[in-house]
Amino acid sequence: MRVLIIGVGTRGDVAPYTGMGARLREAGHQVAIAAHEPYAELVTGAGLEHRAIPGDPLPLLASAKGGARVSLAAKARMFAQYATQVTDGIVEAAERGADILLLGVAASAGYHVAEAMGVPSMGVHLQPVEPTGDFPPVMSALGRSFGRWGNRAAARLAFAVPSPAHAGSARRLRARLGLPPMSSRAVYRRRESTRWRVVHGYSPLVLPRPADWREGLEVRGYWWPPRPPGWVPDGVLADFVESGPPPVFIGFGSQAAARAEEFTDLAVRALRRAGLRGVLQTGVSGPLGDDVLGVGDVPHDWLFPRMAAVAHHCGSGTTGAGLRAGVPAVGLPAVNDQPLWASRLTALGVAPDAIPFRRLSPERLGAALHTAVTEDSYRCRAAALATRIQAEDGAAAVIAAVHEHTAAPR
Length: 410
What we know:
By secondary structure, this protein is an alpha/beta fold. 46% of the residues lie in helices and 13% in strands. Helix 1 packs across helix 16 and helix 4 packs parallel to helix 5.
């Protein structure tokens, strides 16, 4: 079957789909991933077809985190323009051929495209966006719990009454595809009544499946990105890692490049306060003294097991990679689902209290790193959890679901 995975977002939103896609290819399917152009090599390096989606989500991330001084009106225009670009890209990617569409959280336009094409679709989500009383909507700015009833109500509202830009984009898309008008509320109700399937790409050991979720919402395990063929660490990195005590990893995600010097200085000062060596993924590469090295893209499955601890922004994929490595963590969450994953690291006993991005300082980060490295309980719990996570096979659930969908009569 021709499987089209639509992964809208930054590198961390695309990388897990390369692992899932590689497994689907091994199962005999033709697999393409539609993603933004900067991640084309990530996709093709996994042996999969890349279909380009225009647009760039990084400026939106910067404005959401306060890193760019943009008016509300300008932000609204940015999001509307990006939504249009993504929608156009999804349509064009699907028009190149697909027998089933697998949709990430930000690829909701694909639901309408699949309907127009007469092919099945299903969700492959890295975040738990479906309504539950267990926690507030993870992709909103609410940030705090409103109790079980309030959390569910807020999440349902986000589905039924999306932003004007999103709702308008969906309305125009259905008209473009020759589909009858349908409100966001009606789309959500149809998804619920048909038990539209969503497989989540994270471990139930990390975040258990909510008991109040409906049938069809599954949590089975992470999708691990494959290491690029023939990849080996460069001599500088390998020598640095082996030249002393295990260093600490510090990374701030895809948005780091916009403020590389500021983030790098903060991380170096934190390491020096804690008396630790460090590998930084902050947008600056090369030696930063005898005890600190800046790196670019390095496979986490090679790097993280060699670290004394990993401090990161708590994106879903990076969180999973740290847990798989069995090393302590320090959460540095900023937006969307990141605070949820950070809270889970603390609840699981593999990390001290997280440091919200807005409160990040060399003093706080240095103290947290020292705690994570020196208190043995964090490493012991991390190692025990890693053994159980490594035994899971999250991709198997997606393969089974694809087979069920494609075998069903249309």
